[in-house]
Amino acid sequence: MASLALVTGANRGIGLAIAHALKADGHSVVAAYRSGPAPEGLQSVLMDVTSTQSVDEAFDSIEAQWGIPEIIVANAGITKDGLVMRMLDSDFESVIDANLTGAFRVARRASMGLLKLKRGRLIFVGSVVAATGAAGQVNYAASKSGLVGMARSFAREIGSRGITSNVIAPGFVETDMTSKLDEKRRKEISSSIPLGRFCSASEIADVVRFIASPEAAYITGAVIPVDGGLGMGH
């Protein structure tokens, strides 16, 4: 059954792929983005997940124009990589604020509508590094690890209302960010992945499509890895 879906950070990369995949499944999709051009072919709204006011205003606008979003994909996030001894408080705090607190702001506001509908999907885009850790990404790994506890708490708190809450945990994905890696580093990373290659954004989107579907109605509180085997055992 087609629903209204909201995808944050949806003007590029994984978020854009998810938005188009959900649209292809027949859902009405609202792409939320903070800056840059609006994504083509999608309904869109400006939203800065680091601002409660911006999140609330975006939801007010969505609900006034299109209704209550039933599928929420919290994808917006940033990185500020660096060795821990040189990592500034601001580098740590800004990544936590965008990736973890930002997802909380979105899910908290979305829950108001979902509780009225007595159904819905909260889908958080995490990362394999939440479980494995990553040198140079203390801040990012902490933010993505926090999503797991948060998603499972949402699952327990509002699951009785027909609302599921899950985390999709990608590994290395072909995006603008990873395209900047030099060939030597790409080969090093690929050799550590059992499937021997990076993931495509569409492969992440396909898993989101499933979790958003009626067939996944009994899956909640789960962390679903899409990492080519990189994080197995964690």
Helix-strand layout with pairing:
Layout: E1 4-8, H1 13-24, E2 28-33, E3 43-46, H2 52-65, E4 71-74, H3 89-117, E5 120-125, H4 129-132, H5 138-158, E6 163-170, H6 183-191, H7 201-211, E7 223-226
Parallel strand pairs: 1-2, 1-4, 2-3, 4-5, 5-6, 6-7
Task: Please characterize this protein's 3D structure.
The protein has 234 residues and is an alpha/beta fold. The chain has one domain: 3-Layer(aba) Sandwich (Rossmann fold), CATH 3.40.50. The chain has helices spanning 13-24, 52-65, 89-117, 129-132, 138-158, 183-191, 201-211, and strands at residues 4-8, 28-33, 43-46, 71-74, 120-125, 163-170, 223-226. A seven-stranded parallel sheet has the order 3-2-1-4-5-6-7, with helices on both faces.
Summarize the structure.
The protein has 234 residues and is α/β, with parallel strands linked by helices.
Mean pLDDT: 95
Q: Which CATH class is shown?
A: Alpha Beta
Please give the radius of gyration in angstroms: 17 Å
- The chain-level structural class is alpha/beta
Number of domains as seen in the coordinates: 1
List SSEs in N-to-C order: EHEEHEHEHHEHHE
Uncertain segments of ≥5 residues (pLDDT<50)? none
Distance between the termini: 34 Å
Number of helices, counting only DSSP H or I runs of 4 residues or more? 7
Report strand order across the widest sheet: 3-2-1-4-5-6-7
The CATH topology corresponds to: Rossmann fold
Main beta sheet, described?
7 strands, parallel
What would the principal axes of the Cα set say about the shape?
Answer: globular
CATH-wise, what's the superfamily? NAD(P)-binding Rossmann-like Domain
Total number of beta strands: 7
Q: Kindly estimate the percentage of residues that lie in beta strands according to DSSP.
A: 15-25%
* Helix percentage range: 40-55%
For the record, the CATH architecture stands as 3-Layer(aba) Sandwich
